[in-house]
User: Fold these one by one.
Assistant:
Number 1:
Amino acid sequence: MQTEYEFMLPRGYVDANGELHRKGTMRLATAADEILPLRDPRVQQNSSYLSIILLSRVITKLGTLPAINNKVIEDLFTMDLAYLQDLYQRINMSEIPSYHLTCPHCEQHFEVPLDFLLT
């Protein structure tokens, strides 16, 4: 199972020395990655900040930067932030679990995706 995904930012992060960083790696998110940031006061004040913290937790490499933190994600160009948010969604939601069912009347086989958001 693949747990890390390489990416290339459309524009790139420019560090304090003016160096451009575009190539990086993102890992699959864990339950802790999704839950722990909800305790952060910045997220409680502004739910949009959740994606900043999530991305800073799951991006394992960006160019030659020694570490990825919230400030790095905050300083990304809007296009790069949108790209990373989309990548996060695609790699973490790519395999939607489903039930394999058989109709009791016609015996046709089909799959029904699980929707965890249904109440």
Note: The CA atoms of residues 100 and 111 lie 5 Å apart.
Number 2:
Amino acid sequence: MRTLLVLIAWLLLNLPAWAHKPSDSYLSLSVEHDQVEGRWDIALRDLADAIGLDRDGNGQLTWGEVRDAHGEIGTYALSRLMLSAGTRSCTIQMLEQLIDHHTDGAYSVLRFHSNCGGPIGRLRVDYRLLFDIDAQHKGLLRLTQGGQTNTAIFSRESAVQEFSVAERSRWAESRQFIHEGIRHIWLGFDHVLFLLVLLLPAVLILAEGRWQAAGEFSSVCWNVFSIVTAFTVAHSLTLTLAALDVVRLPSRLVESTIAASVVLAGLGNLYPAMTSRRWLIAFGFGLIHGFGFAAVLTDLGLPHDSLLLSLVSFNVGVEIGQLAIVAAFLPLAFMIRRSWSYPRLVLTGGSLAVIAIALVWFTERAFDVQLFPI
């Protein structure tokens, strides 16, 4: 009981009130002979944190403020990107800056040209954007040459990577997106809390209006299996539809609905109306969560062969992350299910705490306000 309470308390106390998806930038490089044409999409909110774009301090970025900071934006970004071919460093020249809109807001688009002074057999990319202020930031790369596409993900731990423009390592790409899927589920605290809220009553049964301990571990596992499978099938479906651009919903709507799903799932534990078919709840809200998972892939704009590989690998990573959460939680919950405090402290208290956190998320996302500084 003490271990499980400490685990839940740690999760609740360390959850930042993220109102948006984690920080990502999108870097596209096109290689031809000794030249590289580049496009780099960086979120304005990230640039505002890094170099202070909001000059009047009113909390709102204007086009004038962004335009006046073009020189500073270009200098800041390009000082954190280095390209080289073998022993030759590639010069980078800024061409223009534009504004584009992704699923989660406005981005500054930097278009640049790079000359490597000779044929490019292997391209080395040194990516250092935002790592000094955001350890969780990721850079998503699309590298194309002669109709062939490579993808990669830069993190603080893998800031320097080298690519053969003549060869493509599908295993390396798959491995990176599996890792990204695991990271996304573990750092996507709204997804984690939704899953945990559904799992909290899994070791209990409702009899005569009261929660009682479930019997055999096999029946508990079957209940959990149905919940996790329903959630997996649902979010895999909408993740695929969104990543293939068949269906696309506004990020603000998706993120707000995800927060609302956590609130409703928590309320379902306090006022249980559907205890025998909780998999239906997991499936219904899993459809919305899938759109949240898809955001990291759709904005990268991968061609279909790379997108399918990335999609499958990313989804495998998400499932690995989910199974790790279930494996850590379920045995502890089953061992203490008969205690007096499980239905009162863990189920009721945990659900109330999750509802409070999710209400903050919903307010921030739906009304675009920040209730707590982070």
Note: The chain has two domains: 2-19+188-367, 24-169.
